[in-house]
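DUF1007 family protein, pasting as requested.
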Amino acid sequence: MKRVKQCAVLMFLTLLSANAGAHPHSFITITNQLVVADGKLTGMKMRWVMDELTSADLLYDAGKAKPGDEVWKKLAAEVMANVLGQHYFTEFWHDGKKVKFENLPTAYGLARQGHQAVLTFTLPLATPQPLAGQTYTFSTFDPTYYVDMSYEKDGDVAFGPDFKGACKVSVHTPKPNEDMLSYAQSLDKADAPPEDMDLGKQFAQKVTIACQ
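Structure tokens follow.
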């Protein structure tokens, strides 16, 4: 098996639903620009910065490759394929119903930022969603809580600077009770929480878009 298949990020992307443990062993910091066209939300430009340990094998495989080199394209395609296999690790809701995504991103890439790997991609909504007078919520998370995926600050998810609509974006970070925290922290890599528990969702930040 090739080394790239063994790297931490690909392990979490391909195996988390079956084998991954709970309390976070990998960390991804997210920034997200909401994409609008003709008054409708069309997608989200995601930027995932992986922690140094998770990044290590990816960057090893990239070696000294320059941006745009074929090795970066190959690594990006492998990582992105697994992200797609987990529906972008994202749930998007409107009026109590899930909003569907396109099966493929409109753009994606992988790059180096110091000792960290950075995945960027545009997540397109299957159907553009009108903003005026509407409220949407979404979360990006690993269902098993093996990987912590989060925004460091509220401003890390926002509309682009040219957006003129009357919308407010807020990020809610949950505070699970002590029992839930203790349970998550008790699980090791060999343990997997029950699927119906939705452990990762208990810790997932919820972003709300409220428009006038």
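Note for the archive: DSSP finds five helices and eleven strands in the chain.
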